[in-house]
Amino acid sequence: MMIVNHISGRHVEDIKMNEEQLLEMLVNCKGCHASEFSKWESGGHSIDYQHVFLNTKHNTTEQINFDCLRCHGMFYQGNVGDIVEPLNIKGPWTLKNVEMASRPAIPCMACHQIHQEGSPGVKPDYSDPKTIFYQKNVRISKVSYYDRHEKDHFAVVGLPMLKLKNGDIDVKVSDDPVMRNCVQCHAPNAHHEAGSSDDRTPRGVHEGLSCNACHEPHSNNARNSCASCHPAISNCKIDVTKMNTSYADSKSEHNIHFVACADCHGSDNQIIYSFRDH
Question: What are the distances in angstroms from CA 85 to CA 21, 79, 146, 259?
Fold first, then answer.
């Protein structure tokens, strides 16, 4: 039908594709965006249905519910009860259709839409190289959030900024539009309490930073992020990548997203915990 409309010159704005068609698109995306696809595949966002809905540790802590599909399986055209059973915290859990096991739960279209409003780039005036920088148009982010309930994409520039509270204190949140997309899924609870639910908004020494300041867009890799802001030796005269935080050690009690000065220093400014290489 899309081909018929295209040939006949009809402009149909409300084009919808089901999940199976979108997964076929995923293969087509890979054809041109091989690097981005490879990075996505190596990161956490390439998780599939079996690892989302058959996760014993998570399922025994939080019961599977309809809202799971808001972030995991947002294009699925049924409800969560059609995917997995039983819907309780006892289990054991099984997929109703085993063929869905390897289906990506967060495909490309979760954060990208095919068409984007805006104007195409143009060549600069080479006769005056000093003005090239000023001639460039500010590009709108290509990221957009797919809302399962609305069945539509929303450009990140139109999404609201997160309002976050740490007790009675407002947390400074980056105004980076892309981060507005991140917090749609990595969100706090309904009371906007910092660190609740899956909130990982930077606080402490990293308050105000965007997710993109540390994480690569497609792979979510943050391995080289420290070097982007910190010199080889910190004010503490110790390599920040070796400090006792969750950056260096997943078992550390000092989460890199929330680590504060007081976690490391006492009132007399002495370091009160050991470092991994000491």
Answer: 25, 12, 26, 39
> Is residue 205 a contact partner of residue 260, using CB atoms and an 8 Å limit?
yes
- Per-residue pLDDT reduced to its tens digit, 135-175: 887 777 789 999 999 999 999 989 999 999 999 999 999 99
Phi/psi at 229 (5° precision): -120, -30
Per the CB < 8 A criterion, the answer to whether 24 and 201 are in contact is no
100: its two tokens: 């869905």
- The DSSP-derived string for 195-257 is TSTT-----GGGTT--GGGTS-TTT---TTSHHHHS-SS-TTSS-GGGSSSTTT-TT-SS-TT
pLDDT computed for residue 148 by the predictor: 93
The answer to whether residues 181 and 159 touch, using CB atoms and an 8 Å cutoff, is yes
Rounded to two decimals, the pTM is: 0.82
